[in-house]
Structure formats: C-alpha cells, structure tokens
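S.,

As promised, the 2-acetamido-2-deoxy-beta-D-glucopyranose run. Input:
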Amino acid sequence: MRKGETEQQPHLRPLSVMVISIFVCALAYVAFSFAKDPAWLRDTSSLPPQSVFVDPLSFAVMGANGTFRQNSFDSGFNPTGTKPPFFQVFDQDFLGVLGQAPSITEIASNDTFAFAHEAPIYDPVQDFVYFASNDGGPLGMSDIDHNNKVGRINLKDVSTNLKGTAINIPVTELSLPDTIQMTNGGTGPFRGNLLLINSGRGALPPSIALVNPNPPHNATVLLDNFFGRQFNSLNDIKIHPSGKIFFTDTVYGWLNHFRPEPLMPSQVYRFDPDTGAVRVVATDFDKSNGIAFTGDGKTAYIADTGASGGFLGNNQTEPATIYAFDVDPVSLAFKNRRIFAYSDAGVPDGVQVDTEGNVYAGCGDGVHVWNSEGTLIGKFFLGSTSANMAFAGKGRLVIMAETKIFLAEIAASPSLFTS
Ligand SMILES: *[C@@H]1O[C@H](CO)[C@@H](O)[C@H](O)[C@H]1NC(C)=O
Ligand SMILES: *[C@@H]1O[C@H](CO)[C@@H](O)[C@H](O)[C@H]1NC(C)=O
Ligand SMILES: *[C@@H]1O[C@H](CO)[C@@H](O)[C@H](O)[C@H]1NC(C)=O
Ligand SMILES: *[C@@H]1O[C@H](CO)[C@@H](O)[C@H](O)[C@H]1NC(C)=O
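Predicted complex:
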C-alpha cells in the first residue's frame, strides 16, 4: 500500500458507491479473464470461418520425441494439418484483423508461370491490382535474355459471393517500354501513375519509373544511378507521407544470374522526385528487401531476406528479419534500428502496415501478421511462399503467391501511405 491509502474507511462510503465499485471490479475481472484466457478460442464455434486457433501453449513444449522442423523453407508451420488456405490465429488481436465474417479464396492461378511475385499496386479508380512476375527465379520465365512481365487483374471480375471456392479470373499483360527491365516492386498510384522499381537486366540499369496505368503505358524514368554508379538490383519502394520516395537495393539480380556482381552495399535510399536529391538512409543489411512505413510516417520497417541466397543456396543462420527504425523528422534518415520480428518460415519479403499498426509480411508459408509490439498474432496460411500483398481499399487484402493470387476479405484497412 502507498502512503495515505490506509486512512480510507470503506464502511463510511455511501452504499451506492460501494455497489458501483463492486460492479466495476467485476466487469474488469471478466474483461481481464476474457483477454488472458484463450480457452474460449478453443471452442471452434466462436471462431470466424476458415480460422484455426493454434494456442502458443499447445506447442511450447514438444519434448524428447517431438517432431522438430529442420528446414524453415519447407511448407511451414501447420501443427493442426489444416488444408490451406486458412487463417491461423495465435493471438486474440488477429480476430480484430479478420472481423466476424472473413474469407480467403484463390482468385487467379497458373501452375506453369509465377506471374504474381511482387509489385502489387491497387488502383482504386479502376479497381485493378497490378503485379510483376518473378524476376529470374523459379517459374519466372525471365533471365538475363528475357524481361519479366507486369500484369493486372480487375477485381470487378471477382464474384461478390466468394465462399472459399477457387476461381480463376483473367490476367491482362501490360505492354511496357524497354526502359522497364525486371520489375520487382511497386507502389502508388503516385501522381496518377504506377511507381515501379526495376532490378535492371545485364548491363541495362536498375531504375525507378512512373508508368501510365492506361494504354499506351508510356513510362518516365525518374532515377537510374547513384552519382553515375549503377545500383545493384533495385528491389522495393514506398512513398513516405512527406512525398519523398524510399527504396531498397540488394543483390538478387546477381544471385539470380541476370545482373553483374554487386558494386555497392545492400542499403536503403531516399529520393526527392522534385529536386533529384538521392541519399542513403540506412545500411548494414545482409539483403535489404521489403519496406513500409506506419501511417504517421514516424516508423519505418525494413525486411532483411539474408537467409534466401539465390544460387548460393539458403542459409538459415542468416537473417529472416524485420527491423524497425525511427524516421528522423528533419532528415528522414532512419535511426534507432531494433529487431521487430524474426520469421519462423522462409524470409519476410514485402511488408505492409494497417491502420492499427499491425505489420504484414510475405513469408515462406503465407502472410504473417505481427501487432505493433512485434507479437506474431496470425497468418494467412497458404502452405507456400508469398512475396508480397496489397490492400485493395478497406477490408480486402490481395495476396501474391507466385503461381496464384488470393483475395482475403477481412476487417483491416490499409494505413494511408502503404499501398
Ligand atoms: C519417447 O519414445 C520412446 C520410444 O518410443 C519411449 O520409450 C519414451 O517413453 C517416449 N518419451 C516420451 C517423453 O514420450
Ligand atoms: C500460363 O502462363 C503461360 C505463360 O504466360 C501462358 O502461355 C499460359 O497460357 C498460361 N496458362 C493459363 C492456364 O493461363
Ligand atoms: C505519357 O504520355 C503523356 C502524353 O505525352 C504524358 O502527358 C504523360 O506524362 C506520360 N506519362 C508518363 C508516366 O510518362
Ligand atoms: C551460413 O552463414 C553463416 C553466417 O554467415 C556462415 O558462417 C556459414 O558458413 C554459412 N553456411 C553455409 C553452408 O554457407
């Protein structure tokens, strides 16, 4: 007890105050038990459709005869053996992301072509989602002699009553100018255009470019060098609320045999589209990859896919890690780097943030979601790799899964500047 508390005489309080106090205490106790005891989650009737609760306590101890995972790049962590796609719930916070009537459904597929790798961009005017095929990797149908492809789907082609049964809506390929080589990331729309980031191919330089979403899909390259030096293979891009463009550079062009050996570190840059000024805002990564900001622009997330090594092979002792940074209010440089999350499956690649500050990343078994404290609250479990995803307005998450695209209808909404 603190000083002074002993002087209170409860029996002197009016009866009504006592009754109200008891009632409030009882309510608080019920709310506390509800929040802390996951027992109610084990009752499947209280879970939303297509959801499975996996109590972290249920696998906290696996014992001497446990079947432990050897390879984080296999089909992932699915202790209930549930058939994908489904929502894997680890924490009650994930129910806020899902809402009461979520669904997750395959909406496009092509078994022989990884047409939906990264660069998801939602255009709210047309209700289109744009994306790029895998550049230089498995089923990408692209290499040092062949460019990858940018395509789009029309979400109006998705029927309104999705009930988890796979459909296959048409993908339209865009005919882009030759200045766009090996697109790996995208965001926007920015000033009415798609903002694409391209890895380059052979001697053709990596670049950032505006692309007209409408035919003839003409492009304007905004940046293709750092003071006369080519980037290694540009990877992912976001627009900060300040209007400045931030992007990552890493080594996958070389590791996938379509770019020369890297000549600069893997790092994060800031570009001012109005003045042309370009500078480094963060360095010391193994392989800097996905990038995202919270809606207020004060926190930046950078994924490091170090464990995924292209022709060098995967190495599970290297990073599969998302770092958080404070964004300096004046210089917008990234400060106070700290660990935000380490992925249990594959590597975290593209990153998005919702209005509640939950962080979504494409990983080895689907899309993982951490709350703003960095607790893994759930997964959009696919049993295969997702490299990125984008909100298509409120309550719709479009998930890239290489040879497939999934649509999740949920409760969450995108933070303003993360599309
Ligand atoms: C592990 O398996 C062995 C061999 O089947 C068995 O003797 C032992 O009791 C098991 N241990 C536990 C903790 O279940
Ligand atoms: C899959 O993609 C390949 C390469 O673009 C194309 O030739 C084929 O028609 C596609 N298959 C389907 C079923 O869309
Ligand atoms: C495309 O061409 C039109 C007409 O010349 C021009 O106004 C527009 O800025 C161009 N868009 C891009 C992204 O280059
Ligand atoms: C994996 O990475 C670690 C740390 O960089 C390194 O020491 C080790 O040699 C690597 N293993 C292989 C098989 O490349």
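The mean pLDDT is 91. The chain has four helices and 26 strands.

- D.
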